[in-house]
Amino acid sequence: MSSLKKLPILKTINRVFGGRIGILEAAILFSIFLLAFFLRIFPIRWGLYLSEFDPWMQYKEMLFIIDRGWSGFLEFFNWHDIESWYPFGRNVGRTAFPGLPFFAAFLYHVLHGIGVKVNALELAGFLPPILGVLTVLGAYLLGKEVGGKPAGFFAAFFLAINNASIGRTHMGWFDDESLSIPLLVFGLWAYIQAIKGERSVKGVVGYALLSGLLIGYLSATWGASRFPLAFIPLITVILALIGRYRRQLLTAYVITFSTYALMALMVPKLGPKYLFEATLLSGFAALVILLSFEASRIIPGGKHVKRLPYYVVAAGVAGFVGITLIGLARLPGLKFFSVLVPTLRSQLPIVISVAENQVSTWAMLFLDAGFQLLFVPIGLYYALKRREDRDLILAIFTILTLYFASTMVRLSILAAPGIAVMAGYGISEVFQGLGRNLKLSAAGRRRPISPEYYVLTPLIIVGLMAFTLIPSAYGVSFTISSIDAGYVPPTIVSSSVPAKDAIPAWLKTLTWMRENLPEDAVVASWWDYGYWITILGNRTSIVDNATLNSTQIGEVAYAFMTSNETEAYLTFKRLGATHVLIFVTHGGSPGGVGLGGPRLLGFGDEAKWVWMLRIANQVGYNFTESEYLDQQGQPTDKFWETTLGKMIPFKPQQAAPGFVNHIYNPTSMRHFRLVYQSDPPYSSVAYVYIYEIVD
Fold first, then answer.
1. 693: which strand partners?
2. What's the pTM?
3. Tell me: the pLDDT tens digits for 535-579?
4. Among 125, 296, 410, 445, which lies 20 to 30 A Cα-Cα from 365?
5. By the 8 A CB rule, do 420 and 139 touch?
């Protein structure tokens, strides 16, 4: 060990900090927090905007509450928004999760109450990075549970640079996940604290109540809360079945489950019917199983009494299957159930049409987690080898969330904390093992270790960590660099094009809408753009990103896909539309040929029309997809005869053998008059067109 102290870096640390190691640890943790925060605020370069689409609706809900003062928290549940889903409107209070807007509005009122005048948009923009840093702290606590402070530091660092985490907590990502993930991480940590064997009764009650409150509020924030609500019963029963049952486990579980179950039932979007969904029923089943364990300990009897819990488990499985078959127990919606069985998602074209709902690939997982995936198996090995309660909880949590992330791209954020914790534990064990070997070698109790082992191993690991912080060449969108993951413009700034440049087509369009369209205008578009039209364009929309009414979405899809212009006109009029908006991406110069020539890029409606066709079929229309797509996946002439095909001004033209360019050649239409285009032809890569519906 004395030889280790002679290393220059350790001598320097010892000289500077001496016995004040706590200061060094605090400095390391604070540095990780700063790294996490700065990686997440890179989008500020393009101005203060929210990302994607859903965050704008969350912001609208937040403003609704703020504008009405403290009474807004009650008025929210009676809010019927007439600016969306025309002509029926939307009952927002019963169709939206209130967790995030309530939390943000509460912070807004508190800050203003103490004299801190913060702008609502600023709060919505900066809250996700702050919550991201808070989640990093949670990862540190979980890592510390399994592997001490070294594992905690590594776990915090790994989550700080995790691309999936950055992608859902960067500045402007004011959406469910930014609040839900810290609630999940701290709720899980509190439950681990509650079931620790040395915990006092007061400690068990306190931590269990905290866990229940955190997970309960999570149920009011995110639909994916179904996982932690079912995971707590699952892992508790597993612990009991492998011989870890104790009365403390029952006490902690009863308090946690009853707390989060009551809170979940009070969420209007879930309501009393949630009591009969498998999510909460699993909690009651776990309660019965735990009570049977307690009964088997206090009731005198032979082996059958001791086996009572296992009889209850068998009867419970059979009973659950039975009540499900007769309809008394409800399974989660197909969207959630398809996370377990991803092949079911093919029955939901509206869901699968969104890129983040697609089945993931190894490449996507690696882009999200990077080299951390290499150390997860090591962490799992050590955790499953030791098999303490906390090890099993976090190991099973990581395995399950990794599976979920592999079945749905969006759920990579759910797996990020588990990946960081297990990778942190794994890599800390590698370094501690190296240290133990060096100590034994220095003491002469083991053959001297070659320099390659104790020099190259740390260098390789540090090199892997540093590699994820090296930014790529400017303009490359798909890399494993966490700097690149954070350094992306808000979607509204780049007009949904995956580029690191400002493309103002949508910003110009929404400004024009506010200033030029009649106040009573009703805009029909594909559902992707509904929130932008309603919130930023300040005009009424027919469908939006909530996808509440698949029939109405299907009607819009039919209007776009029919080749009969009169039928499209009548459909739009029946829906109450006065204008129709389309979004097209196109690049290349008009004089080019082949790949360098003008062509549609596939980031707008020129690619989304396939899903319009499928959703129209889902609601009862009869389109044969093969008539609109050729064997190479390119649109046929029949597509260009549809309403959408006619509205897209760039038409296909054979440029050379094997090459098709798309030349600006707009179609004259009887019932749709072009009143706005965001940019002249060939001057941008994103174009928004608005047509007025005329008789």
1. 672
2. 0.91
3. 999 999 999 999 899 999 999 999 999 999 999 999 999 999 999
4. 125
5. yes
